[in-house]
Amino acid sequence: MGPDHAVQPLRERLNSKLGEWDAQASIVENLEQLLGCTLPSPSSSCREEFSVECGICYAHRLEGVAPEVVCDNAHCSQPFHHCCLLEWLKALPDSRQSFSTVFGECPYCNHAISLKVN
């Protein structure tokens, strides 16, 4: 989970090197090798680093769900719960809906943001 500008390079790197997966190595070792990075571990990271709050309701979990939508602006990357962002966008006078997608602006940076309606 994350903004496309951060996730897409990792996704591409993983897909291009998937043939190098070592069945004898652990999942973590394989991912670190294929992605070319060190993954955080409980011994090297504190829990607060992974606590993500919704930019609208400021809750980590809403009805058991963590924020799952992230602003694509590289300077913002603010996470939101789907339901919070949907209500926000529907309340904006300049947002619009086309079929099953609502279009509007990020509450933090005013960057264009869209959201599929379930």
Descriptive notes:
It is a single chain. With 118 residues, the protein is an alpha+beta fold. The protein has helices spanning 4-16, 27-35, 82-91, and strands at residues 69-70, 79-80, 96-98, 101-105, 112-116. Strands 3-4-5 form a three-stranded antiparallel sheet, covered by helices on one side.
List the helices and strands and how they pair.
Layout lengths: L3 H13 L10 H9 L33 E2 L8 E2 L1 H10 L4 E3 L2 E5 L6 E5 L2
Antiparallel strand pairs: 1-2, 3-4, 4-5
Number of helical regions: 3
What would you report as the Rg, rounded to the nearest angstrom? 17 Å
What fraction strand? 5-15%
Structural class: alpha+beta
Largest β sheet strand count, sense and barrel closure: 3 strands, antiparallel
Major beta sheet, strand line-up: 3-4-5
Please state the average pLDDT score.
Answer: 85
Count the E strands.
Answer: 5
Distance between the termini: 19 Å
Low-confidence stretches: none
